[in-house]
Amino acid sequence: MTAKKHIIALHDQERAQLEQIAHSNRRSIREKTRARILLMTDANCPREGGGSWPDDAVARRLGCTTWTVSQVRRRACDRGALEVISHQEQPQRKARKLDGRQEAQLVALTCSTPPKGYSRWSLVLLRERLIEMEVVEQIGLETIRQTLKKMHSSRG
User: Fold this and answer.
1) What is the pLDDT of residue 2?
2) Which residues fall within 8 angstroms of residue 148, CB to CB, at 6 or more apart?
3) Could you tell me the pLDDT band of residue 1, with boundaries at 50, 70 and 90?
4) Rounded to an integer, what distance in angstroms lies between the CA atom of residue 75 and that of residue 83?
5) Model pTM?
6) Which residues touch 78 (CB under 8 Å, ≥6 apart)?
7) How many C-beta neighbours within 10 Å does residue 108 have?
8) Residue 144: which H helix or E strand, with range?
């Protein structure tokens, strides 16, 4: 067994807040699991008290992977124990091309009857109609396809 690289040493106040999060009914499963991981890997708590467990034992007990346990411990050392609990937005994530109103117009257009001479809507026809209706200035075919796939819509 290798030595732990990132040691968690919680203060009494942090430990009390993590215990409250771990037993809360208003927190997500992910947040509660992260809190339990930190509580079980706390070096300041003797093993009889439930702390300082090895990663594989924590993973088995909580039903997650050892990778999850080690990553939670690493992030807690980097950012702090209480900051690790909540979900952090991803900075590299691209902004959505269509907002909710535009998506609704796309779906409504897809559900309408296709233009004369066509038996169904194509992605090109949808793009042309969206630009013609001034819903968007320009849009890619892949954006239309992914939006319709996400909405479980069919083009005919």
Assistant:
1) 58
2) 106, 107, 110, 154, 155
3) low
4) 9
5) 0.60
6) none
7) 9
8) helix 141-150
